[in-house]
Design a protein that fits this description.
Layout lengths: L3 H6 L3 H15 L3 E5 L5 H7 L8 E6 L3 H8 L3 H7 L4 H15 L3 E8 L12 E8 L5 E6 L4 H20 L17
Parallel strand pairs: 1-2, 1-3
Antiparallel strand pairs: 3-4, 4-5
Helix pairs in contact: 2-7
């Protein structure tokens, strides 16, 4: 657990989202989100930033297996066999959002906040993926303690951290993207 001093020095979600918006602008890229566990909170972090409309395309909140499959292209057989709380589903959600919105970057979140287990997975388990066109998909599994709101809030923070780290790995700003930040 982070000490109070560490918590005081960590950026807030809106601060981290502002950094990501700046990175997206600098790279000439656009972003979207596909969220289950976080229910639109990642998108809300972005739209709280002035100027986010320059880089934010939109979001899908897909709670059901059927919507994950129909809207985001998550394999229905995989969902039926393995459930929605795993790294593959997070990756597919992020990739599906990129394709749906035409964004160069997308974040996908899936997990279980509790209080009960879901799909045989313990509360506090989540998977986050960041898909950037032309890059390997970045994925993070997290296991968090706390109530439903705390778990969802921490997943948002981890998603923003992963996105920022992935964007900082892009070697040449804007290379391979058109003038509105979509992969060419």
């Amino acid at each position: 657990m982070a000490s109070k001093r560490q918590k005081d020095t960590e950026p807030s979600d809106s601060q981290r989202a502002a950094v990501i918006v700046g990175l997206l602008k600098a790279h000439g890229l656009r972003i979207s989100t596909a969220e289950s566990l976080t229910g639109g909170l990642v998108a809300a972090a972005f739209v709280s930033v002035p100027g986010a409309s320059d880089v934010f395309d939109g979001a899908v909140v897909a709670y059901t297996h059927e919507l994950k499959s129909r809207l985001l292209g998550v394999n229905a057989e995989w969902l039926a066999t393995h459930g929605a709380i795993n790294s593959r589903v997070a990756e597919d959600m992020a990739t599906g959002a990129r394709q749906l919105f035409g964004s160069a970057v997308a974040i996908g979140t899936t997990g279980v906040a509790g209080p009960a287990s879901a799909d045989g997975v313990l509360p506090g388990t989540a998977y986050i993926a960041v898909s950037i066109a032309g890059q390997d998909i970045a994925v993070r599994a997290v296991r968090l303690k706390g109530g439903r709101s705390r778990v969802r809030g921490r997943v948002v923070a981890r998603a923003l951290e992963l996105c920022e780290a992935a964007l900082r790995q892009i070697p040449v700003p804007g290379e391979g993207y058109d003038e509105v930040g979509r992969f060419a």
